[in-house]
């Protein structure tokens, strides 16, 4: 029998429709894989019973000829999406045990498309991190290993989602991307991840980190799978005032394989000091691949790039300091009683939030404080506009940009932990596009000398996910990345 | 009106007041959620996931609230800002579920405006409006239901409020009362707020300072928890003397927030400037800037009713009423409408008199509202028409009015039933006049001898004989002739 956990969505849909296997078969295979790979800690809450129920309903629909777009496809749901009746934690102690009475718009759309939810994927606490080491529910371990044998980070914040897809536990997964939280873990885990234009997917029911940056997106093991999942997640939502009332194009149809004459911009500012040579080499390989496929390579400049990280680390914490004020122990989640209201707040939040979350709340509170607001928040907003303008000027000369996704391959758990700034540098290539609200995608291209995946990032104009996907598809074909994580190789053997 | 100055030991002091009025918007749903807004519903039954600030919930602006704010801005003769921004005001409290209030800070929906206030001495003064902005109300903390715990009712959480900020143009307790009354009147005319201070749908914070006339503005104290017009006046009186005593005692007034205690009748310090919250305002990233559609302001302007001040000026001009009568009649939109229905085709001054002195007086005595009046405007108009065409005298009219008020019958029916029709037959009156003169020869003698005052006696006698129904003018004329 086919290895049901190694299928792409496209292959699975074909097999389901040909009755080669049922949704029940696929779901069972993935539940087994989830159990076998428990050590990776990809999930905070596993929902196998629910998944089997959904699989049963899916098979019934298919039998009666009512199959939905993604009927029977098992996915992992980042535990930042509120799911009705299923614990939603944002990987924080403060929300432990919280069971929403509502379903986020994106997860509802996926249910409406017939997907099967295997569980709630682990992440960095409140999506704050690039290593998935800040989760209250433990680190996620990458399914990849280098010669050192050390446990590696899957990237973050959507680390559980990315690791689950890479480890063949889940066929695809949802993520959210605030400063790179989909693209960077996709690169670290050797899969595809896409963050659409800000406003393409509804944020309603997604636990907020930084409202002006947060954007749901998709992980898949192929560009096409990613496009299919994203398709089902996208669309206007009147419940989110920042969601765009625009038609959603057919993303998969954009994968024509033809990028002849397309202009690909290479931003010179992304050649940062101290970047490992393997990243530089990988980037050049990508450039050559696109050139060989008929694209025209254009050197462009994004002069304000160097300010992107500092700007991001003012704006995102500022918004987070306010967004996380609601976790006060009064209405839901953790409450640690104190002698009065203020003491209850202090106790609850001291115990409920982890270090990184506290750090960002404090930075953000400071940046918004009277006397500092103009120097930090207002200044950062001004520079954010300049960064957006850089991209808009660049897109007058080219149709998409190609850059590395991250400045390194995955690192060992525990590395960078003592130095937040060093950790923040992981997002140096992904943050600028987040500030500009642009669509971006990471595509795995090869393994480095140590056998760890490297990815390249494609960025596009606002609302032009199609070009990003088209370029991603071409890069995927040219790179022909077929490596599977060591852990699965071991299981397969 | 001359500024009310307060005498201190060192001379006269001028009171300077600015007010912030919070008015709950009349709307079927809350500012950013679809929850209902009715007052008095069972606790925590009008709360959506958004109002309770559940994780991942997002605000969506209620268009009806925007239209109400624009309408109110127009009623305050203010500039309407085509673009405004919602900002978060961050602070922690148990009845503030989000940990921030969505408000407007740097870019409010309504800017500078002005209104007229009517003062007790019959003068009119202009008070500047600084701004009006929209914001969410908080929930309600309930502290008296449990020895150690507090409870929170979120029904009010997220309801739309308009904060109306005045310029520091108010000069004393009377002006403050006139100001809040006029704002309340305008809001009620516009039907944008019910103005009910008892239910808390209208609340005021009062900023008070004192200075020597002509000096720069003094340091102000903000007084909270003043929940009635009376409390506002009492709080001002207390706070003004406190500040004057303080300064004259060689101290400086500190900028602070003070709480009015209606039991002890005093204000006391709640928090100083140093302890003031740093609200960390910033534009709410969940909401786009609010941009009013082209034509919205004009289409709302077209629906505006005639406003109190416009009505007042029209009553004075068209009906020739005094400022006082006009002010009384416009105090409620329904009262003004009642008056105009009574005045329809009648003597307007007479109509104003009957509405203000007789009808409102009677209703007031019975603690009834105009809506509960047993006499309709048409009925009262009918009675006044009977006075005007001499069917009844003004004196008889009072009797008719009392009967109408008691029974709800029409005036002409009562006049007919009780035979109250005025005697205007000069022959009939003349006969009675002769009869009275014949019956009182002594008084006739005295009157003719110069005791003019006795004229009234003769009038009274004639009226007595006719049961008050004789036309008074004819009686006078005939008596003068005969005597």
List the helices and strands and how they pair.
The complex is a heterodimer of chains A (about 500) and B (about 475).
Chain A: H1 9-17, H2 23-36, E1 43-46, H3 48-63, E2 74-78, H4 105-112, E3 116-121, H5 159-166, E4 172-177, H6 183-189, E5 192-195, E6 215-220, H7 223-233, E7 263-267, H8 277-292, E8 296-300, H9 308-323, H10 341-352, H11 355-368, H12 374-394, E9 400-404, H13 420-424, H14 431-436, E10 440-447, E11 453-460, H15 465-479, H16 486-492
Parallel strand pairs in A: 2-3, 2-4, 7-8, 7-9
Antiparallel strand pairs in A: 1-3, 4-6, 5-6, 5-10, 9-11, 10-11
Helix pairs in contact in A: 2-3, 5-6, 9-11, 9-12
Chain B: E1 5-8, E2 11-24, H1 63-75, E3 83-84, E4 86-90, E5 100-104, E6 113-118, E7 124-136, E8 140-142, E9 151-153, E10 160-166, H2 173-190, E11 202-211, E12 221-226, H3 229-248, E13 256-261, E14 266-272, E15 282-283, E16 290-291, H4 296-301, H5 308-318, H6 323-330, H7 333-343, H8 348-365, H9 377-388, H10 394-407, H11 411-418, H12 426-439, H13 441-448, H14 455-465, H15 472-482
Parallel strand pairs in B: 12-13
Antiparallel strand pairs in B: 1-2, 2-10, 2-11, 3-16, 4-5, 4-15, 6-7, 7-10, 8-9, 11-12, 13-14
Structural summary, described in words:
The complex is a heterodimer of chains A (493) and B (483). Chain A has 493 residues and is α/β, with parallel strands linked by helices. Chain A has a domain at 4-260 and 466-492: Alpha-Beta Complex (Amidase signature (AS) enzymes), CATH 3.90.1300. Chain A is built from 16 helices and eleven strands. Chain A has helices spanning 9-17, 23-36, 48-63, 105-112, 159-166, 183-189, 223-233, 277-292, 308-323, 341-352, 355-368, 374-394, 420-424, 431-436, 465-479, 486-492; strands at 43-46, 74-78, 116-121, 172-177, 192-195, 215-220, 263-267, 296-300, 400-404, 440-447, 453-460. Chain A has an eleven-stranded mixed sheet with strand order 1-3-2-4-6-5-10-11-9-7-8, sandwiched between helices. In chain A, strand 10 and strand 11 (453-460) form a beta hairpin. In chain A, helix 5 runs parallel beside helix 6 and helix 9 crosses helix 12. Chain A is globular and about 65 Å long. The model of chain A has no long low-confidence stretch (mean pLDDT 96). Chain B has 483 residues and is an alpha+beta fold. Chain B folds into three domains: 5-300, no CATH class; 306-418, no CATH class; 426-482, Arc Repressor Mutant, subunit A, CATH 1.10.10. Chain B contains 15 helices and 16 strands. Chain B has helices at 63-75, 173-190, 229-248, 296-301, 308-318, 323-330, 333-343, 348-365, 377-388, 394-407, 411-418, 426-439, 441-448, 455-465, 472-482, and strands at residues 5-8, 11-24, 83-84, 86-90, 100-104, 113-118, 124-136, 140-142, 151-153, 160-166, 202-211, 221-226, 256-261, 266-272, 282-283, 290-291. In chain B, the strands form four sheets. In chain B, strands 1, 2, 6, 7, 10, 11, 12, 13 and 14 form a nine-stranded mixed sheet that branches. A three-stranded antiparallel sheet of chain B has the order 5-4-15, with no helix packed on it. A two-stranded antiparallel sheet of chain B has the order 3-16. In chain B, strand 1 and strand 2 form a beta hairpin. The longest helix of chain B is centred in the middle third of the chain and has 20 residues, at 229-248. Chain B starts with a strand and ends with a helix. The A-B interface holds A 81-82, 88, 90, 95, 98, 100-102, 104, 203-208, 210-212, 238-242, 318-319, 321-322, 324-326, 328, 330-332, 341-342, 345, 365, 368-370, 373, 377 and B 49, 52-61, 88, 90, 92-94, 97-100, 150, 152, 278, 280-282, 284-288.
């Amino acid at each position: 029998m086919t290895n049901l956990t190694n299928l792409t969505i496209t292959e699975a849909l074909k097999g389901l429709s040909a009755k080669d296997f049922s949704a029940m078969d696929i779901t069972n295979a993935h539940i087994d894989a989830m159990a076998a790979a428990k050590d990776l800690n990809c999930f905070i809450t596993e929902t196998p019973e629910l998944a089997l129920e959904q699989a049963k309903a899916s098979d019934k629909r298919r039998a009666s000829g009512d199959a939905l777009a993604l009927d029977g496809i098992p996915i992992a749901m980042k535990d930042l999406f509120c799911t009705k009746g299923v614990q939603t934690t944002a990987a924080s102690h403060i929300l432990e045990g919280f069971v929403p009475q509502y379903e986020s718009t994106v997860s509802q759309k996926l249910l409406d498309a017939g997907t099967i939810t295997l569980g709630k994927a682990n992440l960095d606490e409140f999506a704050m991190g690039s290593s998935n080491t800040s989760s209250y529910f433990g680190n996620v371990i990458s399914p990849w290993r280098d010669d050192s044998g050390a446990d590696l980070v899957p990237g973050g914040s959507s680390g559980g989602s990315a690791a689950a897809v890479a480890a063949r536990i889940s066929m695809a997964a949802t993520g959210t991307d605030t400063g790179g939280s989909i693209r960077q873990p996709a690169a670290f885990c050797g899969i595809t991840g896409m963050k659409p234009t800000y406003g393409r997917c509804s944020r309603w029911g997604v636990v907020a980190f930084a409202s002006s940056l947060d954007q749901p997106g998709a992980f898949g093991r192929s560009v096409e799978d990613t496009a299919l999942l994203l398709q089902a997640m996208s669309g206007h939502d009147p419940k989110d005032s920042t969601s765009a009332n625009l038609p959603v194009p057919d993303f998969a149809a954009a994968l024509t394989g033809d990028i002849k004459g397309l202009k690909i911009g290479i931003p010179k500012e992304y050649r940062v000091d101290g970047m490992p040579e393997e990243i530089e080499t990988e980037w050049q390989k990508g450039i050559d691949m696109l050139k060989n496929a008929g694209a025209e390579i254009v050197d462009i400049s994004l002069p304000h790039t160097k300010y992107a990280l500092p700007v991001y680390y003012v704006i995102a914490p500022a918004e987070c300091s306010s967004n996380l004020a609601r976790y006060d122990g009064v209405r839901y989640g953790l409450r640690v009683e104190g002698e009065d209201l203020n003491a209850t707040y202090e106790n609850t939040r001291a115990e409920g939030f982890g270090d990184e979350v506290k750090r960002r709340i404090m930075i953000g509170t400071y940046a918004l404080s009277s006397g500092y607001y103009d120097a930090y928040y207002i200044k950062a907003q001004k520079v954010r506009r300049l960064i957006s303008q850089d991209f808009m000027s660049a897109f007058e000369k080219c149709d998409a940009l190609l850059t590395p996704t991250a400045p390194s391959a995955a690192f060992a758990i525990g590395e960078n932990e003592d130095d937040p700034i060093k950790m923040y540098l992981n997002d140096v290539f992904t943050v600028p596009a987040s500030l500009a609200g642009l669509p971006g995608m990471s595509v795995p291209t090869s393994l480095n000398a140590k056998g760890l995946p490297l990815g390249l990032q494609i960025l596009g104009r606002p609302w032009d996910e199609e070009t990003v996907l088209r370029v991603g598809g071409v890069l995927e074909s040219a790179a022909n990345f077929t490596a599977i994580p060591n852990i699965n190789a071991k299981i397969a053997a | 009106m001359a500024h009310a100055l307060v005498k201190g030991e060192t001379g006269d002091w001028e009171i300077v007041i600015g007010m912030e009025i919070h008015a709950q918007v009349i709307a079927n749903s809350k500012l950013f959620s679809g929850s209902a807004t009715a007052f008095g519903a069972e606790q925590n039954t009008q709360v959506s996931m958004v109002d309770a600030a559940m994780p991942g919930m997002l605000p969506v602006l209620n268009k009806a609230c925007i239209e109400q704010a624009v309408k109110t801005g127009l009623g305050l003769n203010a500039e309407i800002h085509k673009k405004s921004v919602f900002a978060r005001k961050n602070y922690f409290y148990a009845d503030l579920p989000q940990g921030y209030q969505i408000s407007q800070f740097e870019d409010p929906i309504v800017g500078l405006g002005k209104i007229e206030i009517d003062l007790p001495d019959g003068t009119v003064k202009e008070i500047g409006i600084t701004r009006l902005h929209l914001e969410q109300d908080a929930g309600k903390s309930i502290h008296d239901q449990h020895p150690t715990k507090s409870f929170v009712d979120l029904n009010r959480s997220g309801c739309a409020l308009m904060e109306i900020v005045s310029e520091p143009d108010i000069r004393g307790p009377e002006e403050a009362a006139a100001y809040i009354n006029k704002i309340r009147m305008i809001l009620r005319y516009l039907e944008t707020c019910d103005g009910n201070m008892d239910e808390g749908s209208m609340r005021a914070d009062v900023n008070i300072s004192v200075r020597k006339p002509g000096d720069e503005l003094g340091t102000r104290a903000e007084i909270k928890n003043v929940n009635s017009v009376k409390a506002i006046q009492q709080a001002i009186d207390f706070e003004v003397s406190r500040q004057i005593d303080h300064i004259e005692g060689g101290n400086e007034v500190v900028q602070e927030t003070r709480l009015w205690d209606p039991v002890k009748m005093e204000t006391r310090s709640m928090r100083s400037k140093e302890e003031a919250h740093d609200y960390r305002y910033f534009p709410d990233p969940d909401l786009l800037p609010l941009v009013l559609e082209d034509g919205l302001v004009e289409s709302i302007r077209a629906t505006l009713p005639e406003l109190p001040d416009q009505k007042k000026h029209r009553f004075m001009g068209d009906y020739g009423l005094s400022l006082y009568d006009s002010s009384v009649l416009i105090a409620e939109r329904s009262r003004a409408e009642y008056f105009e229905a009574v005045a329809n085709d009648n003597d307007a001054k007479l109509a104003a008199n009957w509405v203000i002195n007789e009808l409102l007086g009677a209703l007031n005595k019975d603690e009834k509202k105009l809506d509960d009046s047993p006499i309709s405007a048409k009925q009262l108009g009918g009675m006044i028409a009977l006075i005007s065409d001499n069917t009844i005298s003004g004196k008889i009219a009072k009797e008719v009015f009392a009967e109408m008020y008691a029974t709800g019958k029409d005036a002409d029916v009562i006049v007919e039933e009780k035979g109250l029709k005025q005697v205007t037959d000069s022959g009939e009156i003349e006969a009675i006049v002769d009869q009275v003169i014949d019956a009182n020869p002594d008084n006739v003698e005295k009157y003719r001898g110069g005791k003019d005052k006795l004229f009234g006696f003769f009038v009274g006698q004639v009226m007595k004989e006719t049961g008050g129904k004789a036309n008074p003018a004819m009686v006078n004329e005939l008596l003068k002739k005969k005597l």
